[in-house]
Description:
Blueprint: E1 10-12, E2 15-16, H1 31-36, H2 42-47, E3 48-49, E4 52-53, E5 58-59, H3 62-65, E6 73-74, E7 80-81, E8 84-87, H4 98-110, E9 115-120, H5 123-136, E10 148-153, H6 157-167, E11 174-179, E12 196-199, H7 212-225, E13 229-231
Parallel strand pairs: 1-8, 8-9, 9-10, 10-11, 11-12, 12-13
Antiparallel strand pairs: 2-5, 3-4, 6-7
Amino acid sequence: MTTGVEWADETSNPTVGCEKEKQxxxxxxxxxxxxxxxxxxxxxxxxxxxxxxxxxxxxxxRQVEKYATWGPVVEKSGLxxxxxxxxxSMTDIALAPYEMxxxxxxxxxxxxxHRYMFLTKRPELLLLNVxxxxxxxxxxxxxxxxxxxxxxxxxxQRRADERIEVLHEIPAAVRFVSAExxxxxxxxxxxxxxDWVICGGETGPGARPMKLSWARRLRDRCRAAGVPFFFKKVxxxxxxxxxxxxxxxxxV
Length: 252
């Protein structure tokens, strides 16, 4: 693992940047914006003005060139499995203009032995890009490539209601939600089954607290529905209780 994102083996940022305006409550303490404003690389500096995203989406072509060089992950048992790659930790990948998104898709399609995870707060835009890319490659939308995992951020019930409905319209081998940062109890993920649920509290200065009871209820609902549950962390410097030391993945 070469990433701080515990549920991925790698992070890749073919694009960097985001809209000026916040999309929802989960954006209020954006970790990616905080990293980018330090200007540690040209793409970060170009995507920010002062302390904020400036709305530009910066293309980094070398990021997609890496996929073909990465092999599978070798577990301690010696077994090999596909490498899980989170696409867009420094952006919302749905904001990539179609020309950029298609180049990302082409790189994924050329190295299908990995699993590529696309996470968004803007599923309507991602739906358009995914479907257009499948049409471009003459792929039946009813048979998405097995490397394509698509998720939405659901920081509260309102966003779960808005985003999960659209998520189920996006062709994907795995559909997941990330309740991170979990800002309130989420009682309902809708009538359709999800393939995976990630949960975690907010980290960093001024982090909004997550109640352990919210995470436990979500864990129990996942167990009842037979949905793999991955708990990331309560918050920075806060120990995870033993009963939440759960890191499950979809069995695909």
